[in-house]
Amino acid sequence: MNTVSELGYTPRLIDRYLSDLVATFPAVLVNGPRAAGKTTSARRLAASVVRLDRPAEAAGFLADPDAALRDRPEPLLLDEWQAVPEVLGAVKRSVDDDPRPGRFVLTGSVRADLEHNVWPGTGRLIRARMYGLAQREIVGGAALAGPSMLDKIAQRSADAFTLPATRPDLRDYIELAVRGGFPAAVLRTAPGSVDLWVNSYLEQSLTRDAQPAVAGRDSEKLVAYLHALSAMSAGIPEHKTIFDAAGVDAKTARTYDRLLEDLYIAEQIPAWSAAHLQRLIKSAKRYVVDTSIMSASLGAGVDTLLGSDDLLGRVIDTFVMAQLRPEVAISRQRTRLYHARTKGGREEVDIVAELPGGRLIGLEIKATASPKVADARHLRWLRAEQPERFAAGVVLHTGPDVIKLDDDIFAVPICAFWG
User: Fold this and answer.
1) Other Cβ atoms closer than 10 A to 340
2) What is the DSSP letter of 284?
3) Which of 11, 230, 345, 396 has its CA 20 to 30 A from that of 74?
């Protein structure tokens, strides 16, 4: 059902998943960061397109969304639905009257309005989430067609991990992180101008996109808040630490948190819990979603990040999450991501992936080219606490080789994501 030319299109992980959803359900909603490529991918499945962020195209939907939907070739792509949120009700009514699959695809760059406007219980609107380019999408070819990283880990074999012919070193990884995953920056911007594109994106997000939620507040405080959050990305800071650093009060900080998450700029990963473990902390782990935003917010280029032990570890952890997040988003069997840490921080696993059936995969992330057996000690703790559920563990590192650290724990280069 490709109605748009494939010329110049960069295949995405979500393509097959999205095609299957459109073939199965009457309405599919794709949300994710602005400029992540949602419209480009969804257009390939659409017979007609309406850009609701363009006043001329939105006018009819503002006046009478039900009438505006009628007699349009389907699948109909309604791009940037949040510009005319009433369109959700019109889609609901149309789908209730005619629940054939493949009628509507909606794309949007915010998450908040959806929670208040979708209709409950019908099972006729399916949601998908799309993020910026993962490195395996940029590499393409066999890397894109291969199994997900979690599937590789679950095989519990060094042979499951394939690596690219040219393996990055630490500086290469930081350069990839600073470049980030926005398609326009990665694919259509000269390398020396990527920082200009990202800074422009960030300015637009924190001014135009954020204004309805922060009206009456100092926009500079929002910039300062994101700066503080970026400096603590991949960490578990006390909330007060962040809002004190930004110079805002608790109420404003909560508003900023919701805003940045609604715009897919920041994300919180919940703490993992187990019935018999009472020592686990309950605080969420905080991430900036795209590492280019983290770098731009901090004003930190490659050399600055390499020169800071604290920021180096945070940006590598954030980069790994940016590779994992799109894979989990299209998992047909629900996979949930957590972090685990005991009170006092004696034991800590960077990412705990809970697979269908409750099986657990642990990921430790190290900015080192020489992983040691000791680097797997927290994974062994997780295995000892959950021996029946523990599937496998990996220490993801910046070196060149896969190393077996234990029967079901391996040290694996981060580039195995796209090998």
Assistant:
1) 25
2) P
3) 11
Which residue has tokens 């910039």? 223
The helix or strand, by DSSP H or E, that contains position 151, with its residue range, turns out to be: helix 149-154
Cα–Cα dist 180/323, whole Å: 10
Q: Are 357 and 381 in contact (CB under 8 A)?
A: no
Is residue 116 in a domain?
Answer: yes
Spatial neighbors of 355 by CB under 8 A, at least 6 apart, are 150, 154, 333, 335, 361, 391
Element (H, E) at 252: helix 250-262
Structure tokens at 234: 């991949």
pLDDT band at 384 (very low <50, low <70, confident <90, very high): very high
Q: How far is the C-alpha of 41 from the C-alpha of 30, rounded, in Å?
A: 10
Domains of the chain: total: 2
Name the CA radius of gyration of the chain, rounded: 22
Q: Which residues pair with 361 in a beta bridge?
A: 353, 392
Ramachandran assignment for 180, one of left (phi > 0), alpha (psi -120 to 50 degrees), beta (any other): left
113 and 189 inside one domain: no
Q: How many other CB atoms are there within 10 angstroms of residue 328's CB atom?
A: 18
- Highest mean pLDDT: which of 8-12, 58-62, 107-111, 254-258? 58-62
Amino acid at site 332: R
Number of helices and strands in the chain (H, E): 20, 13
Confidence (pTM): 0.94
Q: Which domain holds residue 271?
A: 135-418
